[in-house]
Amino acid sequence: AEALMGRHALISYMHPQQLDVCIEVCQSICLDNGAFSAWRSGKIIDWDDYFKWVEKFVNHPRVDFALIPDVIDGSDKDNDELLDRWAFWFGEKAKTFGVPVWHMHESEDRLYRLCAEYSRIALGSSGEYAKVGSKDWHIRMEWVMSKICDSDGYPKTKLHMLRGLDPRVFSRYPFHSADSTNAGRNCNIESALKGIVTGK
Predict the structure, then answer these.
(1) Which ranges constitute the DSSP H helices of the chain?
(2) Strand 120-124 and strand 158-161: pairing?
(3) Helix (H, G, I), strand (E, B) or coil at 41
(4) What is the reported pTM?
(5) For helices 76-90 and 47-55, what crossing angle results, to 10°?
(6) Is residue 136 pLDDT above 90, yes or no?
């Protein structure tokens, strides 16, 4: 609670234990679909259960948005099918409350399409660009920015960077927001937070 007082927090569907505390003390919250945790652990998420969980917070004043379900190593088609399921479930709230994930191995066409249809998209590191901050990752991210930013370098939609709270990452690109599990996991270990949350 002390670490997150007045801050912004991401709460994962796979690990919602801090939800009540964050609703009490945070300035705003976004809901994560848990796809990364599931991908790492080999678990399968029942997306209908996620939708039911999200439904409770669609009009909550502290909750800004929820990440639409995604398949991290999936194809454009795999992830577009999940957008359709989300749209069917949430109707008119689908695009105002939901944020789609564009994975860095996905197509340019899908990137353009999501930027045109949504006021905010999330960027996910995947495939050969799975290691955030690697040389290949930065080359790909520079390419992304060249495609979706205007002549002043401003992105045409708000960008949320998944796993992006390393200052060497978020200070280099025009992200609107970013997240990391580091604070939630290590809030009592000051040395683990240096350079990530504080930037020192």
Answers:
(1) 19-25, 35-41, 47-55, 76-90, 94-97, 108-117, 135-148, 167-170, 182-186, 190-193
(2) parallel
(3) helix
(4) 0.88
(5) 40
(6) yes
